[in-house]
Automatic annotation (TrEMBL):
Keywords: Cell membrane, Membrane, Transmembrane, Transmembrane helix, Transport. GO terms for cellular component: plasma membrane. The keyword Phosphoprotein does not apply. This is Sugar ABC transporter permease. It comes from Cellulomonas bogoriensis 69B4 = DSM 16987.
Amino acid sequence: MGARDSVGYRWFTWINGTLLVIFCLAMLYPFVTILAQSFSGAGAIRAGLVSVWPVDFNLDTYKAVWQNQMFWRSYRNTVVYTVVGTTIAMVLTTLLAYVLSKKHLRGRNVLIGLAVFTMFFNGG
């Protein structure tokens, strides 16, 4: 009989699993309610009738979002910033990695020190 077969371990596992399920449900509940509200009518939302399931199902909110030009402009900006930022970061990281791979490079230790120095501080 090992430690995993003991009654205490089985109780711990059961209680731990139960608490984790409760915690996960508590984390998911706000997302589920927002999703239900997005598919519900405005009157039902204002009356507070929507909880987990949509009431007066419609797609008006999605129609409004898809027809809004500001949404598409914001979406385009997000894609552009992500692509440009990722490309710049990858190019700079690749260039620095190539330079640091050369053992004979003068100032290599200074560059390594600067790279390590940035790891000690967060961006904000």
